[in-house]
Structure formats: C-alpha cells, structure tokens
Amino acid sequence: KLRSGILSSIASRGMAALAPLMLIPLTYAYLGTHVYGLWMALVSLTSMAVWADLGLGNGLLTRLSHAVAADDAVLGRRLIASAYGLLTLLASMTLVALVFLIPAIPWESVLNIRDIKALEQAPQIALITLGAFVVNVPLSLVQRIQYAHQEVTQSNAWVAGGSVASVALAWAAVQSGAEVTIVILSVALGPILGNLMNTAWFFRGHSDTLPRLRDIGGAPARSMVGLGGRFLLVTLISAVAINIDTLIVTHTSGLADAA
After folding, report:
1. What pLDDT, in 10s, does the model give residues 85-105?
2. Which of 37, 67, 167, 245 could form a disulfide linkage to 255, CB 3.0–4.6 angstroms apart?
3. Is-contact 35 180, C-beta < 8 A?
4. How far apart (Å, rounded) are the C-alpha atoms in residues 220 and 59?
C-alpha cells in the first residue's frame, strides 16, 4: 500500500501539475489577455484559501486514522459526520455571502482592471471561480477519509480524474464556441465532479462509515476542531506566502502583466 500510494501520488500530482499547463494554450487566446489575467488572479486567491477547511481536513485525517486502527466505527462516523456538518454549514454561509458581496466589490480598483470586457465579466467570473472553490471544500473531505482508511491509491486516481475532466470539459467548451464564463465554469467543474463521484464510490463500499445527522458533535468533534486550528495557522501562513504574487502583480501592473 505504501509503495502503490507513493507511485500513485507521483502520477496524480504530475497530472495535477500538467492540467493547468495544458489549459494555458487552450484558454489563453480564447479568453483574451485581460479576461485570462482576471481569471488567474482569482485562481491565485483560491489557492491562498486552502485554509478554508479551517484545518478540519488534516484534523479529521489525524483523528480518523486512530479510529480506523482501533476499529472504532462509531467514533469514525462521529468524526466524519462532524467534519462534513461543519464544513457544509460554512460553505453554505460563504456561498450566500459571495452572492451578495461580489456585485458590491469595486473590481476596477481592487484588480486594476482597465479592459471594459473584463470589468463587465468580473463579477460572474469571480462568482464561478470562488463559488466552485467553496463548494469543493466539503466535497474534498473524502480524500482525507480515504487516506485514513489507507486507500491512497484510489484517492489519487480520483484526483487525477478530476484534473483530466477539467481539461476535457474546457476543450469541449472551447470547441463549441461557448461563452468565456462557460469555459471557466467547465474548468472549475472538473475537481467537483471528481470528488462527487469519489464520495459516492467510497461510501458505497463503506456504508458503515456513512455520516448521519445524529452523529454530529460530541467530544471527538471538539478534539478534531482543536487540532484543526493548529493546522489552520500553519496552512494559512504558507498559502498566502506562496500564492500572493499574482495578486500583487495584478494590483500594481494590471491584468495583462498578470496573464
């Protein structure tokens, strides 16, 4: 399992790195320099927000691994249900906030937008990019659950499938002459579809771990949240440091330079 997990991780991460490179020639000319730069600026914002699960993903992985090793199905269900419950509530609240806040944001000054087309489409592209990211936060928990169950290879295969789906959907959208927002939505849907199918596949084979409302809460959940908070601090600092470059370039030099 360790050997196959390592090899599949190399393949999965390689595909995850290759997919954005394949998307560049596919989308850059089609979207145009300014719209593409706007999109990349928003993508870098989501990359900085990998802490959006509040550290619960790593907290769940750590606590659930112990429950699986101890063959404690009840504890495992409580941890899974609590993580899904908290992140689903958080994602729902964030989506509602985005719907109301995005139209009110002065995109022209925030991202130094000078192109009329990019300015007009900024709210839609922001809602698609940020909204898809938020939706995927609770959906991606399945990867941590699989890691705790030592199903690393299966998890990596589904992640790679999501990357392939993004490229395939974007290619189909470009070939059909779709609107730029549809092309961006196609790219965003890949990981979401991968995680949805992965979740259905995993819980079909592990029905005893299927989360239920009555399993949410309790001391295990509080312990997981506390541990997640410590993971959150480390993730937040590193994510901002690594991904802030594009936003700085966008704000100071414009979308064309960011692209």
Report:
1. 989 998 999 999 999 999 999
2. 37
3. yes
4. 11
Whole-number Å distance between alpha carbons of 221 and 33? 46
Nearest to 54 by CA among 78, 85, 76: 85
Q: Are 152 and 98 in contact (CB under 8 A)?
A: no
Structure tokens at 101: 């806040």
Amino acid at 251: H
Which amino acid, 105? Answer: I
Q: Is the pTM of this model over 0.90?
A: no
Q: Give me 254's structure tokens.
A: 């414009």
pLDDT tens column, 238-256: 878 887 888 888 888 888 8
- Residues 114-139 have pLDDT tens digits of 888 888 999 999 999 999 999 999 99
- CB neighbours of 94 closer than 8 A, spacing ≥ 6? 52, 134
Contact 172, 30 (CB under 8 A): no
Three-class secondary structure of residue 217 per DSSP? coil
Kindly give, in sequence order, each residue whose CB lies less than 8 Å from that of residue 157, ignoring residues fewer than 6 positions away.
8, 12
State CA 246 to chain mean position distance. Answer: 18
Tokens 């936003």 belong to 247
- Closest CA relative to residue 12, chosen from 172, 233, 196, 194: 194
| Calpha distance 20→139 (Å, rounded) | 21
Alpha helices in 141-218 (DSSP H): 141-148, 152-175, 180-205
Question: In terms of residues, how long is the chain?
Answer: 259
Tokens 């997640």 -> residue: 228
Give exposure, 150-179, as e/b (b: 16+ Cβ within 10 Å). Answer: ebbbbbbbbbbbbbebbbebbbebbeeebe
